[in-house]
Every structure is written in structure tokens, then in C-alpha cells.
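Hi support team,

I submitted a single chain yesterday and got back a structure, but I'm not sure I'm reading the C-alpha cell output correctly. Could someone confirm the output below corresponds to the sequence I sent? I've pasted both exactly as they appear in my results page.

Thanks,
R.
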Amino acid sequence: MHLFTRSFLLFVAILLMAELAARFVFVRAMEGRFDYGYHPTAGFVEKSDGEVELHRSGGRRFFPQTFQKTRPEGVYRVMVIGDSVSRGKSVEQSYTGFLEKELQARGIQAECLNLSLPGFGARRKDLVIQQAEKYQPNLIILHVGTSNEYEDEREWQRRDDFNSPHPKNWLMHSMVLRQFYEMKTEKLYWQWLPRAVRSQAGAFDVNEELRASTDDNTLREWKARVKQVTAQALERLHKAGIPTLLVLQASNTRQKTVDGGVLLSDVAVADWTAPLVRDGVARISMKEVISPVQAAKMYTDSNHVKPEGHRLIAQAIAQTLSEKGWLPKAAQK
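Hi R., thanks for writing in. Yes, this is the structure output for that exact sequence:
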């Protein structure tokens, strides 16, 4: 009796070839694949001609964009870092795109880049900020919210699990086997699974997030972490001489007003961001930009707004930049 059958050896050979291909042929696509957004440069591709491309890589899903690593002379470069709210439906329909048009209408050679990523909390946003600092931005816009800390925590744990030396994770050091595991996690073959399996897995995710988001101690820890990470980022940007504008997330409370609008709340971020405002740091709140009547039509859920809401935010940003004197002098209004 042979110890290994031909079928088994063939399977091992195929697996080995696939592993080599994943590590050496598709190295760019796999960069940061299992760091779940915690890889510092995943999604940033610096080309030999000095151009930088943004694309989906690892745990990051940038909108495709291209810019020069060294900021061209006369260009006013703005980089927007945030989550799915500031990301919008597209670059053009996000407040990043509307801001670029608004500034260009004022005669500014503006280049606004959308570096927002869905599900990103404070720690992963800060990694994007650190990379963005290298590309000579004239302004950083940071969308501040607290709704994604569960995702940050979960992905941090996944990263640690996959990269730990514990024997239970040895098989996961294979790029190919990891990819098969991720196909389940990312639900790429979800439609072929029994409904009961899908429901159970989905309920588990929801229940875990609900449990974490209703625990007072967990919420305090998350708020303290967001505050600390944001403050450290602002201090670093201040030392680098990069002005920073905070856009505060305001959530739809679903409480009706007498004129048919809905009340917005930024209580999760308003109190602790106020002391962060100083020379070179400003803030605006979605609550101040979008009226209750407008919110009733523009909010698609508790946090996200339609393109028209993004346009209003862009106008408010442009006005704030002008008032602060942060725009090129010839364009101040």
C-alpha cells in the first residue's frame, strides 16, 4: 500500500504551484491581503515614473485614483480620510469630488483625493493619514466618527490570529489556504450555502456587534481610543505644518421636528473634539451643515447621506477654509 496516492501528490503539487504564484506572481494583489487594513502601504502603489496609484489591496478598497508622489507646483492638494460616510458612492459624488469642483470654481488648481474606506475606525484611519503625510498635502480632512470601532477591533484580532505562531494557525500561513478561508468570510460563495447556515453566521456577526456596542465599558474604551488616536494624529500633523479640518459625523436620530424634519446628533464626537481645535486645526459638524428639513430627504440611513448632502458639506468646507485663510491667497473670498 502506497503511503501517498497519485491523486494526493497531484493535489500537493497544485497547491504548491498556487502558493508560489500567490507569493511571487500576484504579489501586488496580495500585499496586505491578510492585514485587514492594518498594512501601512496596502493600496498605495508608487510607480517608477513618480506616479502613485490607489487601488483595492488587502483590507483596503480605495476608489481608483492617480496622483504624483511629489505635489506639482501650484497644486492645492487635499486628502480626505474617513469611513464609508465620507467615501460616498463615488469620488465624484462624495464631498471630496464636490470640494474639488468648488475650489476650482474659485480659481484654485485643486487636487482632492478620496482616501476614505468603509468600516475603518480610528486606528486604521490613522495608518492612512500617516501614509498620506508623505505626499505633501496642503490640507488633511479627517471625517470623525465612532461607529466603526467594532470593525477595527474585529479586524485587529483577525490579523493577530493569522499572524500568530500558535500551531492552530500554521495552515493559515499558506496564502492559498487563507484565501479559501476568506472566501467564506467575504461570502463569495454565500448564495450556494443553505439558508440556515447563512442566517446563523449573519446572526452571529450582528449579535457580537450588538453585544459590544451596548456594553458601557466597551463604549468607554472605544471613545477613549478614538480620542487618543485622533489627538496624536493632529499633534503629528501640526508638527509637520499640515492644516487639518475635522468633519464631525452627525447621526439621524429619527426624532421628528414640527416642520417635518429629523433631528441630527453629533454628541458622540462634539464634546471631546472641541479642545482639539487650535491654530492649524478646525472643525465643522454635519449637524451644522445639514438642516433637519434637509436631513429628512438626504439621509439614507442613520449615518449616510445622498450626493446632495455631500455637496452641502463640500460648500461648508470651502467656506471654512476661506475663513481660516487656508486657501491660496488669490482665491480668498
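A quick pointer for reading it: Residues 216-239 form the longest helix (24 residues). Let us know if anything else looks off.

Best,
Support desk
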